[in-house]
Amino acid sequence: MARSNVKPGTAAGVPACPLDQEVRAVVLLDQDQRIVYVNPPAQEALARMGVEEPRSLWDLPPQLQPAVQASMPGEAPSPGVRGLADGLWGVYLPIQELDPEWLRSMVEAEQMAAVGQLAATVAQEIGGPNTSIQVAVDHLLDGFGSEQEHEKRTLHQVLDQTERITRLTRQLIALADPGHPQLGPVDLHDIAQSACELLETSFVERGIECSSELREEPVLAMADRNHLLQALVNLLLNARTALQDWSGDRRVRIRSEVNTDRVYLHVEDSGPGIPQEDLSRILLPFVSTTGGTGMGLFLTRQILVEQRGGLKVSSPNEMGGATLTVYLEKATDD
After folding, report:
1. How far apart are CA 131 and CA 245, in angstroms?
2. What residue ranges define each of the domains in the chain, with the CATH number in brackets?
3. Using the 8-state DSSP alphabet, how is residue 3 labeled?
C-alpha cells in the first residue's frame, strides 16, 4: 500500500486494507471514541510511551490526543477513505511525525550504544595494565622489612587506588552492557554506593555535595544489578543537570526506605524542582524541564518496569527540589 503524506502533528485516515499487513501504527475507534483495535506496530509504539492497552481516545498520550481527535470523520468522509465497518474509523498514529525530536532521539540512542561499547573496550584495556601494577606492588611489598613502614604505607595507598580503578572499570563495563535482566536479590545500598562512586568526581567538579541516609542493615530488592545501576546513574545525572545552573544550595541526597513488600530509594536534590503542571507528564518521552532530550527519565522508568518496579516523581521536597523515587519488590535473605 502506498504511504500517505501526513503533516507533522496530524493523523491520517486509514484506507480499507488488511490491517495485519500494515507496518505503520494504526488504531480503530468507534463513534464514542472507544478504541476497538490496536495493531502490533501501534502497540509497540504506545508501550514505548508508557501506555499499555488503551481503551479510549483519552488513554492515549496527551501528545497524540488532539491529532487523533481531529482525524475523526465528519458526516461526509474524505474521498478514498472509508471505515472497515459501520461506525468504526481508523487512523495512523503520527508517532514520528508528531515530534521532530523522535528521529533525533533514535539517532542519539544508537550513538549512546556506540559510546557504551567504547567505554567497555576502554575499561577492558585499562584492566590489563592495572592488574600488572597490582602484581608489581604486591611483589615490592613482600621485599620490604618492618623498618620501611613509610614505603609500605605508600605502596598500600597505590594498591588502594588500583583497587578503585578495578571497581570503576567493572562498573563501566556493567553500565555499557547491562544485558537482559536477570532478577535476583541484590543489595540496594551496594548499588547506590557504586553509582555514587562513578559520579563522585563529576559532582565535586561542579560543587555538588552528595550524601546518603541509608539504613544500617542491608536492603535487599528483587532486581538485576547492572540494570539497576544504570537506572540509578541516570537519576544522579538528572539531579546533576538540575543543579548545574542553580545558584542556590547544591546538594543531592540518597535515602532508603522499606515497607512490608517494597523497598524504596529516594534521590533528592536541592535544585529548582519541577513545576506542578509538569509533574504528571515528566515521565513521558520528549518532556524535559532542563533542556535535555526528554528521554532520560522515560528510559529509566522502562528499565525499572522491566524489573517489576517503577519510578515516582514528586516536587518540592524538604530541600526545595525534586525527589525521584525508585521502588522495587522486597527480597528476603533466602
Report:
1. 40
2. 12-98 (no CATH), 102-176 (1.10.287), 184-329 (3.30.565.10)
3. P
